[in-house]
Queue: 3 jobs
Job 1
Amino acid sequence: MNRHWLRKIQPEEVHAVAAMARADQHELIAPSHVFTKDGQIVGYASIAQVPLVLPWFDTRKCKARDSLYFINACENLVAECMAPNQELICVPFAAGSPFEPHIEHLGFVNMGKVNLTLKKVK
């Protein structure tokens, strides 16, 4: 019988899980839990470890400098609320966004193209 579990990651497991993820062409980003199947680690999850900021700026009323100010204000606010072990934020930019050519200059690491999905759970 297969047994599937989701449990908190142990500090001593982080390096091994990172190596497993890299071997499968994935990055390890703020893991909080591991998925196990039949007692073996088969994946990880980052649950509520990286604050998500979803900004929108009116392209008719905001200039680039305004947007940079607002993003910085969000970063500062999130940093004030973070736990000591947190250090990342996630700010998705839409394809074609005026920020796209400047993402790395702003200090962000482009994680590549992904589909960001939402689902009601309550």
Job 2
Amino acid sequence: MSPLNSIKVPYLIILALCPFFIISCSSPNGGKCPGCDASIPFFPNVKFKLTDKQSNQDLLFGKDAKFTVSELKIRHVENGIVDSANAQLTVDSVNHTFEMPVLYSNDADTITVQLGAAKPEVLYLSTGVLSSCCSKVVVTEATFNGSILYQAPTVPAKVSALGVLNLQP
């Protein structure tokens, strides 16, 4: 008895079609998902800039910057313990922003932001799965030092990409 002879024809057809259902991205009405792009990562990144509370001046870029990029410490907090290593951070010196991946294994990513010798401040990013035909992890709320900077709409169709967060330590 060969392995293929022991499997019934309907099961072979189902097995042959399974990969197409798993790989494809379609909407409930049978069409392709608008904006469903496999090259867009499943996990979110967050972009932010650091500005002064009073003057709104950039703290890390420009001739009057109070700090240098090397004085910025961004660290994830896991299980109540601040990571000893800086988070993976991409610096965009043209747009004066920073970008980092969000840890989405829990419902929230807690991050400390420290400039120079100042006390670390807390950025709290709540995450959730956007339930649509192309599910993605999204930031649902961003809070810095207790102030809400961003809150996603409750209607999934209205959730857009999270813009640049303006952190004011």
Job 3
Amino acid sequence: MIDDIETILDKHISFNNLDNCVLRWNNKRSEWSLKSFTQMFDEVLNKEEKTFGSRVSDAFHLHGSSTLSKGGANLATKPLHEFSGNTILSQQLDGLTSYQFLNSANDDGVNSIISSIVHNYNYQDKQFDVECSDGYIDNVEQTFQEFYAGKMAGQDPTAIFPTNDDKKRNLIRKHVYTDAIMREERLRAGRNNVISRALALSPGMSFSSKGGTHRDAGDFVIISGEDANSGKRFAQVMYGEWLMTNVVHVFMFDREDYSNTITCIKPHTYGKV
């Protein structure tokens, strides 16, 4: 049997943190990398030094405008508090005057983000195994919080993870079978599959900006704005760290112009909503 690279990645799990991984070509370093999402989120902030990490490539100010760009490596030396709200420095960032906000569909969340009960048969011992704990929806939510949301800025960063009483009582659940031998490998079919869907169904945003060749999917952008510190529910979702999932480089030679269309997701709020 010959597996293609997508099949291998579908079965792969990080040995260090048991999270899903991304195979990525790094244009800046001209090399391939295989990193877990947890490692990627680890590189967004340095909370001890109060600086942005290497994974942040840009910051934008919503409803503002500027001729100054503060993108690229310069962000790594800027204190977090300077970008936490509507400050003089944040107003000098490239401005966003329009965007498309893509909220997650309720039906998708109800149908796919549910407890997973993993079944396995050990041919050597001739024994069936049924694992429920790792894939139970409350435990998956706790892992999602630990892997992603808890690493972000804010007084109480909280995962965006849709649950309800029916899910918690396992009235809505899914049974899956895997031939993986080790428990860590079986996580990919159960718990990690739910985590992957929850991340994919996180709130999204799409916008266009002046072009930059340094931008790439897998990096993060920071969104600030006038009401970033207002405490409003929408502000807690909109402002903060966004993971870029797609970057389109648009070259318009007739106008001698270059722009980017950026799509990104945010699986957390910077405070409880």
